Amino acid sequence: MTHVVELSAPGGVQNLSFVSRDIGNPGPGEIRLRQTGAGVNFIDIYQRRGVYPLSMPAVLGVEGAGVVEAVGEGVAQFSVGDRIGYAGAVGGYAEARLLPAWRGVKLPQDVSSELAASSLLRACTAHMLLHKVHQVTSGTTILIHAGAGGLASIVMPWAKRLGARIMATVSTDAKAELALANGADTVIIGRNADIAGEAREWTDGLGVDFTIDGIGWPTFSASLEATAKFGTFASVGQAGGALVTLSADDLGPQ
């Protein structure tokens, strides 16, 4: 038996319970992982609320790290005792879990379970944004919201190594200091700031090449207006409120 945090139905935290479950042995292509760290992400809240539906009962959590304690048929890349991390597989709020082997990656000795469990999903997202969504190169201008958040703390140093110039938005002076320490060239402070206007001024009226917005509806219009013509606008979350229906007319000015 293993302990898990189980969600009985979509809703509030009152629907979460700490219970014991028999997870069994790994099937073909699976491993059983004794977890030493479990990541907590905003997507867990979406899933708990039912925004992203799950079959009930469910165990939340989409990333973690631990030690392989059993391997299923056909698994050749891992052995019992290997330390691995994973991302993108629901079921992480657990002492132990079954995991598709292809989801796991071996951890170097100098990467702790805590670091892997708390950053692998965001690191994958950062790679996607900087190399797939928009090919960031020297001179690329980036606007990123929540500049003191977990995703920004990985995106900004990475983007700086690629030669980007970065404008970040934050809500407080303390968060501004953190964003600057993580690589922002300039920071917009305050929820009522003229984000689009400052971004346009910073880019000599052109707008930024790449906007990364994890806030959602409260910043959507400003993000769109701040982005240059033929630029890229990536909406990667809705922490501040869900996006409403858009029409082609909303995108016309850009």
From TrEMBL:
SMART domains found in the cross-reference section: PKS_ER
Coiled coil: none
InterPro entries: ADH-like_C, ADH-like_N, ER, GroES-like_sf, NAD(P)-bd_dom_sf, QOR-like
Keywords: NADP, Oxidoreductase
Name of one Pfam family that matches: ADH_zinc_N
Domain annotation Enoyl reductase (ER): ranges: 11-251
GO cellular component: cytosol
GO molecular function annotation: mRNA 3'-UTR AU-rich region binding; NADPH binding; quinone reductase (NADPH) activity
PANTHER family: QUINONE OXIDOREDUCTASE PIG3-RELATED, QUINONE OXIDOREDUCTASE-RELATED
Protein name according to UniProt: Quinone oxidoreductase
Phylogenetic lineage: Bacteria, Pseudomonadati, Pseudomonadota, Alphaproteobacteria, Rhodobacterales
